[in-house]
């Protein structure tokens, strides 16, 4: 029995096929790479590898951008805009080591304690931005907001499902945990979040009160001790008791000294996403 003749390939149908296969980057760049492959005599395997690299680079960029949007991290609070010289007792090397994210791999925690305006939130958000860029899932939230959401879930009898949805985040940043007095119901759902993530997924917490004053967070003494014990067991603690950034800025304004505009962030994920794809194309062209 003779083998059936191969079907002719309809090159004109390629854009439609790439759309059906959800390969938008290959669809955008294949003609340029095909011309280069023809001109330089690339083997089919090299041409195919070049197309795959461009598609993977674009997918990584889109995923990072999507995760950044879902993180709810404040824009502009990145490592590039962090004034390391003004941080009390925290070195650049230490922050950059935390931004590398090894501690997140083990489910450890990060706690920044210090005066209001000392830069705690900026430090935690900058680390969060770096972790998103490295492929981690991060969620930033004021503590009051997440407590309200979890309380609503408890009232609707879906607290377990709400906590399970948070499991997808490698790191949750709880800002201003000691900002306001919490009642028993509020502290209860917050404790459940802390207990659920203990030794499995990371928390980063900004607090303007020392642990000795955390009875404002957890009115029940036993719950206070249990929560602190779980948080600090595997934790890095940053003590940031310095002059308020906001107070210094106000003093500069009063003395009519010019305040430097925020530095353009080199951690802008959207720009880096495009740059990564362009870099990949340049690498292919240079081969």
Q: How would you sum up this structure, described in words?
A:
The chain has two domains: about 25-70, no CATH class; about 75-255, Rossmann fold. The chain is built from twelve helices and five strands. The chain has helices spanning about 15-20, 25-40, 45-70, 90-100, 100-105, 120-135, 145-155, 160-165, 185-195, 220-235, 245-255, 270-285; strands at about 110-115, 140, 170-175, 200-205, 235-240. A five-stranded parallel β-sheet has the order 2-3-4-1-5. α9 (about 185-195) links the parallel β3 (about 170-175) and β4 (about 200-205). The protein is elongated.
Search tags:
287 residues; alpha/beta; Rossmann fold; five-stranded parallel β-sheet; 12 helices; elongated
CATH fold-level assignment of the largest domain: Rossmann fold
Ends apart, CA distance between termini:
45 Å
Annotation field: number of helices: 12
The largest β sheet comes out as: 5 strands, parallel
Number of strands: 5
Order of helices and strands: HHHHHEHEHHEHEHEHH
Summed over residues and divided by their number, the pLDDT gives a mean of 86
Strand order of the largest sheet: 2-3-4-1-5
The low-confidence parts are 262-267
Number of discrete domains: 2
Amount of beta strand: 5-15%
CATH class of the largest domain: Alpha Beta
Alpha-carbon Rg, integer: 25 Å
Helix content: 40-55%
> Globular, elongated, flat, extended or rod-shaped: what is the shape?
elongated
GO biological process, one term: DNA replication
Region (Disordered): 252-272
Family: Belongs to the IS21/IS1162 putative ATP-binding protein family.
Protein name: DNA replication protein DnaC
